[in-house]
Amino acid sequence: MKIGIWGAGSWGTALANLLAGNGHLVTVWSIDAKEIEMLNNYHEQRDRLPGVILHSSIEFTTDMEYATRDKELIVCAVPSPFVRSTAKAGAGFVSEGQIIVNVSKGIEEATLTALVEIIEEEIPLANVSVLSGPSHAEEVSRGIPTTVVVGSRDIKTAELIQNVFMNEVFRVYTSTDIAGIELGGSVKNVIALAAGISDGLGCGDNTKAALMTRGMAEIMRLGVAMGAKVETLAGLSGMGDLIVTCTSRHSRNRNAGYLIGQGKSYEEAMSEVKMVVEGVYSAKATLLLAKKYNVDMPIVEQINKVLFEGKPARDAMYELLGRDRKAEV
Q: Which of 188, 274, 291, 326 is flagged as catalytic?
């Protein structure tokens, strides 16, 4: 297949390497000319994936039209705040029924819209799907066994994408629950901030396990209210991604949370992590969705207060612990 990838960060280049290794013809686009120059000169994403030499067949370009027109499949791998602007920029080069696979995670704060819907709004003639799951680029780029799920409104499209991406170390399942896949992948980043904050405060494994479990309860409450399937949220794009994002040393959300737990602002934490921290962008949107659907999400509420209202993280923790007594289910 001829495949175009929008985004030359860690995830975009990791997937480019995987797809080129599967025998596909891959072109990677970035708006950043210096990034493309580095990739062309060294065939290595030195800023994000140092030490991973990319397949020599991969092309890198700043020409959106070249990376999009006549490609059989497009992968959207830009950070969530830039999905709408990128889709708008590429819309004129997309043909009727062209497949776009969103691999970014987040919710647009201004509209409370998931990323697949944003792409569909900007490129209505495209056939848009989502690929998600516990899949840090640092490990996928090195061939470490990984399993994800692809969601499409049409199962035949999901199966086609499954065949394009799947190999002996990258297993892909299919689903038609796009809403559940996107919600799990977005809100788990907010819970991962909480898990990182607990580490930064010096709490232990008990605390993190509690945050992950009760965070999953919050994700499921919101997901069910929005029409997602519980099975999806309990699967790779929900529970699976939550586990890896809350615990991994590769997790930018967990790492940013750790710094916030140590007393830094979210701006300072994002600057130190040096990557887009999706949970910060999704936190407000998740809280607004909770209010819209009348869903109780106390962890998400406290994270918003820590991030945007200056509430000390330790105070937020004790407020969660001191809530009224209640049954677990």
A: 188
Residue 247 contacts residue 195 (beta carbons within 8 Å): yes
Predicted model pTM: 0.95
- 113 — phi, psi (to 5°)? -105, 135
Distance CA 137, CA 215 (A): 24
274 classed as catalytic: no
The DSSP string of 78-143 is: S-GGGHHHHHHHHGGGPPTT-EEEE----EETTTTEEHHHHHHHH-TTSEEEEEESS--HHHHTTT
- Going by C-alpha positions, the residue among 278, 329, 328, 327 that lies closest to residue 307 is 278
In whole angstroms, what is the distance from residue 187 CA to residue 212 CA? Answer: 12
What's the rounded Cα separation, in Å, for the pair 165 and 134? 15
Residue type at 313 in one-letter notation = A
Nearest to 256 by CA among 183, 313, 184: 313
Cβ neighbours of 155 (radius 10 Å): 13
DSSP secondary structure code for residue 47 in this structure? T
**Rounded CA separation 40/30 (Å):** 12
Token pair 């993190």 is at which residue?
208
* CB of 311 closer than 8 Å to CB of 261: no
pLDDT tens track for 195-225 = 999 999 999 999 999 999 999 999 999 999 9
Positions of the chain with pLDDT lower than 50, given as ranges: none
Distance, in Å, from the CA atom of 162 to the CA atom of 174, rounded to the nearest integer, reads 7
